[in-house]
Design a protein that fits this description.
- There is one protein chain.
- This protein is α+β, with helices and mostly antiparallel strands.
- The protein is built from 7 helices and 4 strands, in the order H-E-E-H-E-E-H-H-H-H-H.
- The strands form 2 sheets. It has a two-stranded antiparallel sheet. Strands 3-4 form a two-stranded antiparallel sheet.
- Strand 1 and strand 2 form a beta hairpin.
């Protein structure tokens, strides 16, 4: 896009036998929602990706809405299709140690959403108080978010 803006002629060459590079959707069948997105798959309309979105438009790359969650958003984990019908179920995707998974039961009982809320609360508070200073203190958040999270969970 920079070359185009500067009026410099160029050829776009793709190394693979398909366009897209790291953008790739593997389709398991022709059935709706039977696919897996690999690589970069979500392109939100943030200022940092405007040029990429403009390139997609110039190249007529089809874009479809991407939904992370929602009442009708299907998910599959451990070969279990969701979302779970009974939202109060303790471990619908069988990730707890009790159900043969690797996540300690106490963390499954707390729930991923609550763990992430607890871990991110100090970071978000610093950003609310003074975004620039909060960002500097947390180096973008990664160190602070990993505090208090078990090493096996944090990576």
């Amino acid at each position: 896009m920079i070359l185009k803006e500067l009026g410099i002629p160029f050829d776009l060459v793709e190394a693979l036998d398909r366009a897209g590079g790291r953008l790739y959707t593997h389709r398991f069948s022709e059935a709706p929602h039977d696919y897996y997105d690999a690589g970069a798959m979500r392109w939100s309309e943030f200022p940092t990706v405007k040029k990429a979105l403009a390139l997609f438009e110039d190249l007529n790359v089809p874009l479809i809405p991407y939904y992370m969650d929602g009442k009708n958003t299907p998910m599959m984990f451990n070969n279990i299709l969701g979302p779970p019908m009974d939202l109060s179920e303790y471990d619908p995707y069988k990730v707890s140690v009790t159900n043969g998974g690797m996540v300690p039961d106490k963390y499954v009982a707390i729930g991923a959403k609550k763990i992430l809320q607890q871990a991110s609360a100090p970071y978000l508070q610093l950003l609310r108080e003074d975004f620039q200073q909060g960002f500097k203190k947390t180096h973008g958040g990664r160190p602070l978010l990993c505090q208090g999270i078990p090493a096996r969970v944090a990576g």
